Amino acid sequence: MEALDEWLTTVREENAAFRAKTGAIKLAAFRAISYLLAMPRRLAKAVRGDGWASSVHDHQLPWLPLLPALKTTPMRDLRDHPWTQRLKQALPEIREELADVQRSFSLARYDSDLNPKRWTAYYFYLLGRPVREHLAACPRTAELLRQVPHNSFHVCFSAIEPEGSLHPHSGPINGSLVAHLGLEGCAGARIWVAGKSAEYRDGEVLVFDDSFVHWVEHSGTQTRYTLMVTFWHPELTWLERIFLKRVVRTAR
C-alpha cells in the first residue's frame, strides 16, 4: 500500500488517543499485572536461553502495552494451530447458514469510514459477549464454535464488497490471534500483515497476529465472505487468559 508510513503514524495516533482515554494509572496496572502473570513463561525462556524480553517490530502496535515474552510472528503457520482443520471440514455447512443470513449483516465494528465500499459483519461473539440470536440462527456454525478454541473477542461472518478495502489498523493485544476461513468470493482478496501479503482462497484458512498493523484490499468481482475467529496465543497461561478477557470486555 502507498503511504504506509502515514498510515502507521495514524495508527500510532489512534492508539495514543485510546491510551490517553484509558489513563496512565490503568495502563501502569495493566503492565504490572501482565508482567507478573508472565513470570513463569519469562523464566522458562530465560532458562532455555531464549531471553527475557519480547522482540520489537515497528508494525506491532496493539492498543495496550505488549504482553511480555510471547512468540512474535505476523503470519502464523497453520501447523501450529491444527484445530483450524475443523473449520475447513465444516465449510459446506457454514456456507449453507451464511446464505440464510446474508441479508442480516450490519456495519462492522472497525469499518473504515474512509472507504465507501463498506465492511459488514454478522457477529456471533463481540468483546467477550455472545450474540445469542445470531448463534440461534446458525446452529451448526454455533456448534462448530463450541468445538474450537475461540476467545469470544471478535467472532463473525465478515463481508467486503468488490473493490472494497479496510484501512490499516491493529488489534487490542498481542495475546489474541485471528483465523480467517474463506467462505466464498475470495478471488482477488488479499490481506497484508506487517507489510507481507497473503491471498484469501475459498475453503482455506489464514492465521495472523492482529496486534501487527494489517489491512485488506479486494479487487475481485464478488463480495468476499469469511468466518473470522479470534483465539488465544498458545503461549498464554490460563491466568493470563482470565485477566485479558476481563480487560478486553471493557475496551473501546
Automatic annotation (TrEMBL):
Domain of life: Bacteria
Keyword presence, Secreted: no
SUPFAM superfamilies assigned: Clavaminate synthase-like
Pfam families (UniProt xref): Asp_Arg_Hydrox
Record key words, sorted: Dioxygenase, Oxidoreductase
GO cellular component: membrane
Molecular function terms from GO: dioxygenase activity
Gene3D superfamilies per record: B-lactam Antibiotic, Isopenicillin N Synthase, Chain (2.60.120.330)
Residue ranges of every copy of the Aspartyl/asparaginy/proline hydroxylase domain listed in the record: 90-234
InterPro entries assigned: Asp/Arg/Pro-Hydrxlase, Asp/Asn_beta-hydroxylase, IPNS-like_sf
Family: Belongs to the aspartyl/asparaginyl beta-hydroxylase family.
Protein name per UniProt: Aspartyl/asparaginy/proline hydroxylase domain-containing protein
Organism in which the protein naturally occurs: Reyranella soli
Taxonomic path: Bacteria, Pseudomonadati, Pseudomonadota, Alphaproteobacteria, Hyphomicrobiales
